[in-house]
Amino acid sequence: MSLVDVTEPARADELGQVHFIGMGGAGMSGVARVLLQRGVAVSGTDAKDSELLRHLEELGATVHVGHAAEYVGEADTVVVSSAVRDDNPELIEARRRGLRVLPRAAALGTLLLDRTGVAVAGTHGKTTTTSMLTALLHHLGVEPGYVIGGTLVTTGLGADAGAGDIVVAEADESDGSFLMLSPRIAVVTNVEADHLDNYGGLEEIHANFAAFVDRVADTLVVGIDDPGARKVAEVARERGKRVRTYGEAPEADYRVSRLSPAGFSTEFTLDTGGIDPVRCVVAVPGRHNVLNAAAAIAVADELGHDPEVAAEGLAAFTGAARRFEFKGDAGGVAVYDSYAHHPTEIAADLRAAHAALESRPETAPEAPSVGDSARSRVVAVFQPHLYSRTRIFATEFAEALALADEAIVLPIYAAREDPEPGVDSGLIARGVAHGRVHESGDPDTAVRWAAELARPGDIVLTMGAGDVTELGPRIVGELQATRE
């Protein structure tokens, strides 16, 4: 994988019939769904069948499983997933016929061209912030369109055309594809080193975010507590953009204070510059989620909505799939799933889990000390994602996982990469300082160990961007079989 070539999006009424290659993925299917809802003729293919494909077929798309040149049909525009190789017969056919070929991000950019676009970018927190913003805009009666890199729990969808003027989109910096979006307002949550299989280093990442600034028509809403995002704010001001900041820093335009965890909810105060600060509640744990919530309210305010009413909508937010998602409980153990696959994300979620346990009503009056064996604990089941990320961040992963009371480390999920000699999950496991770490060679063993290690009152948290997400329900089942 590498940085994509920037392709300018076309207007929706210029696309004609659109054919998607690799339509079954979450990102591609979301764009296809919105185009269908907007009256565009859509066809598409994928290597295997899925519920997402069948759902698109029900909406009117022509769907094929497998790939063949004739499936391009009468298409005028072809949209290509980043996973599609140059030897794909449909892509070869599209190029032979001289059809317009757009990467998925350019097709997403199309959805923002004729409406008020809001793009959410950053190394961490994009999906949650996009979901929070979408949920509170629904509460405000805006009926936004949205395209999220996950599933919004309140609707069960990852994308929808909406009936209003606003479209909220998650902007992916991992391969530079966010440079194909031209939003009116953009959020930058934070900027850290990641996706170094694509980028040469943090300097190149900052250069791409600086280029993203130029794509924003009006306002940037920036997480000022993060040094990388603060640099983006400085660049934006130098280039004449309107900048609004949020965070705990005293100079933040939307200042967060008085954070108070209450089990798996968090209360906080947001000073928006009005007469009185707004008291907010968000039903997910952790300081990082408070900052995501502050960003969502800030955008709503910049769009002209009352921050206090926006905060009411935030209180109804129930989460996004794979973002500290509850999977079930059994034998007094609660199981959650997290997409966290970077050391910063893992540390944030593990701290949030501890804070939630310590502030639960039944334990809040007299929380046991850290050394008390009876206290509730956090058991992490972590699957590293990519050989390159494991090699680069092995030390940082180990330091983050040390925040768990017990850690189970699965083999690396290779995704798009080939194995690297000498790189395995042991690089992480051997570095966990407290030594309560267990290397599991397969998912079955990890499920059994997680159920054996967990005690009543504990949290088991599955973590990673790969198929580790499938283990949560299995751990619940194992707990039911052995405890109940």
TrEMBL record:
Domain Mur ligase C-terminal residues, every copy: 322-466
Keywords recorded for this protein, A-Z: ATP-binding, Cell cycle, Cell division, Cell shape, Cell wall biogenesis/degradation, Cytoplasm, Ligase, Nucleotide-binding, Peptidoglycan synthesis
MF terms (GO), sorted A to Z: ATP binding; UDP-N-acetylmuramate-L-alanine ligase activity
Mur ligase N-terminal catalytic domain mapped to chain residues: 18-113
Family matches, as Gene3D superfamilies: Mur ligase, C-terminal domain, Mur-like, catalytic domain, NAD(P)-binding Rossmann-like Domain
Record-level GO BP terms: cell division; cell wall organization; peptidoglycan biosynthetic process; regulation of cell shape
Pathway membership, UniProt: Cell wall biogenesis; peptidoglycan biosynthesis
Record's subcellular location: Cytoplasm
Enzyme class: ligase
All copies of domain Mur ligase central, residue ranges: 120-300
Signal peptide from the UniProt entry: none
Residue numbers binding ATP: 122-128
Summary of the function given for this chain in its UniProt record: Cell wall formation.
Record's protein name: UDP-N-acetylmuramate--L-alanine ligase
Organism for this UniProt entry: Halostreptopolyspora alba
Name of encoding gene: murC
